[in-house]
Amino acid sequence: MYFDDDEAQKEVQALCSLSCAACAASPAGPKTFASLPLLQAHLRKAHSQSMCEICLLGRNVFISQHVLYSKTALERHMASGAADTGNALGEAGFKGHPLCSFCSTSFYGGGELFTHMQREHFTVRARASRSSHAASRAMYVRR
Q1: So where are the chain's domains?
Q2: Which of 22, 53, 76, 90 suits a disulfide with 47, CB 3.0-4.6 Å?
Q3: Which H helix or E strand runs over 56?
Q4: How high is the mean pLDDT of the chain?
């Protein structure tokens, strides 16, 4: 990548680096890691914090922009999104990651859950018998 401006290059490199946001305020500055698993291990061991694994896979932001959670805050984030109300990256209307009622797998959003349900669980179409519109709805059956 080519940059006309050195400052812009530094900003982009900082966004793309695997550095610890929790260490950024320390006098030594943020620690940088060679891989995401090493950064995650450091966050757990040194700061008792972690990033949401589902957000890491589904959210389109740089690693350095992901929210860090304590264990209890991560549980609230997963279940209801309550831990996200005060952070700058909190999404309006986020109510937690939806859970598949058949296999107890969490997904980033409703679209991912819907795709999972279609691929992994039988779909049975049921027609409304006395409806003028003959509306149909999907019912899922455990495989």
Answers
A1: 35-97, 100-143
A2: 22
A3: helix 53-58
A4: 82
